[in-house]
Amino acid sequence: MKSYTTRYNHKDIEEKWLSYWERKGFFRAEVNPSKRAYTISMPPPNVTDILHLGHALNNTIQDIYIRWKRMRGYEALWVPGVDHASIATQVVVEKQLPEGKTKEEVGREKFLEMLWNWVEEKKDYILDQLKRLGCSADYRRTKFTLDTELSLAVREAFVRLYESGLIYRGDYVVNWCPRCQTALSNEEVEYEEEDGKLYYIKYPISKNQKSKIKNQKDDSRFTIHDSRYLMVATTRPETMLGDTALAVHPDDERYRKFIGSRVLLPLVEREIPVIADTLVDPKFGTGVVKVTPAHDANDFEIGNRNGLEKVIIMDKKGIINENGGKYAGISREDARKSVLKDLERKGLLEKTEPHKHSVGHCYRCHTVTEPCLSLQWFVKMKELAKPAIDAVEKGEIKFYPERWKNVYLAWMKNIRDWCISRQLWWGHPIPVYYCKQEEIKNQKSKIKNIGCGNIIIAIERPEKCPKCGGTNIVQDPDVLDTWFSSWLWPFSTLGWPEDTPDLGYFYPTDLLVTAPEIIFFWVARMIMGGYFFTGKPPFRDVYLHGTVRDKIGRKMSKSLGNGIDPVDIIEQYGTDALRFSILAVAGEGQDPHIEERTFELGRNFCNKLWNAGRLLEMLKREHKEASHEPDLADRWISSRLAAVIENVGNALHRYRLHEAIMGIYDFFWHEYCDFYLEIIKKTGHIEVGCHIFEKLVCLLHPFMPFITEELHTGEDSVMVSTYPKPGDRDRGTEKLFGTGIEIVTDIRNAKTSFGIPLKKEIPVYIEFKDLDLIKPYIVTLAFVREFIASRPRKGIRRVSHSYEIVIPLVGVVDVEKERAKIEKEIFTLERLIEKSRGNLSNEEFVKKADPRVVEDARRKGKEMEKKLAILVHDLREIDDSYN
């Protein structure tokens, strides 16, 4: 006999079972040819900070699948780990420096020491959080993206790509973060709509061009003044200091006669050409654009096609350099103000208009990025993308929900080369070495050249240059984009580039669980990397869950102050309550909206499970009887369980976790507890009830591991028990008993509507062909004292396609008093609804009120309208029967 405390104490239970599972080695997986492998590589959380509720959702989903597959007989491996998160971690640790200090002042060695200390602290806490969440990962295999073996994999990947002609170095316009002092890939730039301005600037026609242009017929549609200048609309006037041309579309008739002429660059007084290029949008601004090849990606392309000079006017900190003339030494923000002031003074600023536009920000420090010409390392992506596109189109890799497949394919078919070098201290050093060229004097004061400038790509640091034999070898100072190690994660964590037994058995992995916001950063790159480096897909299924938000729809984050540490929730509500609640509010692919009271759902469910187990244990002590022949209720609950087991399995196969968990919840709460337990409390026939409960415990285990382990009655751990398989269903019994439940529900609801205590026994008339078979259950569940033989003339009527119920109210309640009570409630509700509608139709109220207040008002309004409809129906029932 199990012993149950009066209340469920999650703290003692969770600590006990986590220790037991680890001691028994249940989380471990080994190469086992007698079993089929099932593998998940945990998306490694960044060591920038502790886990939040988004991680809790993500890892709960993964753990569900690992536990489910383990119980189904698979050798289930879940590889845990954490990511060094190059730029993000460096930014966070820089913020820990003493005020006024920079990392350069602290020094590289000391700063890297601070980073490693940060990593150790956060890594340990993250792993502890994962364990508290019940994550049954094989922690012996925990990886860190800067581990020695993973660093080797990174260098191997770089060298293979380079030798295949897929890595190159060149000067290109990249996204530059002046705060982090590094290049960013396109995917690392977050664009935000901002209220900016469009500045209309006059570019004077060069003197020796004016007469030539005047002789041509003017067109009133030209945005010029007496052929004296061309007008340009721009959002960034400060970059005009680096203009090397103006451009128009070759088919734009307004400006065709200006093509080939020259204009004077305002303020700089440098002549620049007017060129034609199809990249120009004639509908933007005036149809004339300034071309700044060193500070705009599109202008860079135009510049290359037209042989334009590339003038860099800013340094890496966003300060105007010597090419900016008198503006040198001031920030880009101050340069804009000064340029506009000078243009206005010279009469060259025609007008300014409000203009909404997207502005790029660094995804880590949120500084406005600067397009900047820079020497960087790139990966050619077109060739890598082809097999990754084919795999998804052919269904070798599947996306759930399926709509993300099209998002993935659209991006992949328009993929650009990947800038992989970063000007940071924290990360994987680029495995590129240079044979340094130097001039030295010998004893006779003769100058001798040593080194040849050769670029060496190597997995290990070379002792000497293979070309000239020089030994003054220096490594490229840059590090690799953090995603360069992450895209190798599914196979590097299993031993690649070595052909290890783990790699042969556990790879390809089976499932990737992640969020849509990194589908381009990571998912797509892993697929490309998997096919290039291993010739196989990195995983078979990709499940993309929603983003966890607060109750008013904001993404949860530390910066907004709405982030929640899962451990805080666990302490108050328990792990199982957290896991259940977060799934209960997360529809398939939808963003779950969370607030602290959300977790009351899970706490209440845990308490219900605990109380049901406790009740069964009490009934066992009271009814120590031999087996009995299953009755109608037993056959019904057994058949319903078979249906639930089948539905849960189907839902899990389709990655519909909300459907799976709520299917179990509804069955347990509304069928097993509300009806079946009430019956066996009276009959004492508990054998089937106990069997059903144990099956439910096993069915729930992947979702709620701790409480199910405590409730489990088997000799071994529920973790290593067999997951329930659906049995035969008795659909006839389900239909018959289901009708009985509908009848009971109608009687209960009628009692509630008319103020009759639920346990008060009443007479009823029921017309149903198989009434005799379900009478005992109606008596027990609906508290019916008498089945009236003839249909009463007066009474509350409930009708369905297969039965009719009439409940006489005379002698049970005071009909007139009940009528008056309902009329009063209707009157009050109508006034409240009218007031609510008035508030919600008031645009000022909706605009100015706290969004939470508005949402709460809408919710309450819907509830009142629903209640009003019920009351109106009840009043009509009384009027029809008793007038």
Account of the protein in words:
- The chain has 883 residues and is of the alpha/beta class.
- The protein folds into five domains: 10-159 and 482-575, HUPs (Rossmann fold), CATH 3.40.50.620; 176-372, Alpha-Beta Complex (Isoleucyl-tRNA Synthetase, domain 2); 439-473, no CATH class; 595-737, Isoleucyl-tRNA Synthetase, Domain 1, CATH 1.10.730.10; 759-882, no CATH class.
- Helix content is 43%, strand content 17%.
- The strands form eleven sheets. Strands 6-5-14-16 form a four-stranded antiparallel β-sheet. A four-stranded mixed β-sheet has the order 10-11-9-12, with helices on one face. Strands 29-28-31-30 form a four-stranded mixed β-sheet.
- Helix 3 packs across helix 5 (108-132) and helix 20 (657-683) packs antiparallel against helix 21.
- The protein is globular and about 115 Å long.
- The relative contact order is 0.09.
- Mean pLDDT is 91; it is low at 215-226.
- InterPro entries: aa-tRNA-synth_I_CS, aa-tRNA-synth_Ia, Anticodon_Ia_Val, M/V/L/I-tRNA-synth_anticd-bd, Rossmann-like_a/b/a_fold, tRNA-bd_arm, tRNAsynth_Ia_anticodon-bd, Val-tRNA_synth_C_sf.
- It is found in: Cytoplasm.
- GO terms for molecular function: aminoacyl-tRNA deacylase activity; ATP binding; valine-tRNA ligase activity.
- Its main location: cytoplasm.
What is this entry, summarized?
This protein is an alpha/beta fold.
Features:
Rossmann fold, 883 residues, 4-stranded mixed β-sheet, single chain, Isoleucyl-tRNA Synthetase, domain 2, 4-stranded antiparallel β-sheet, alpha/beta
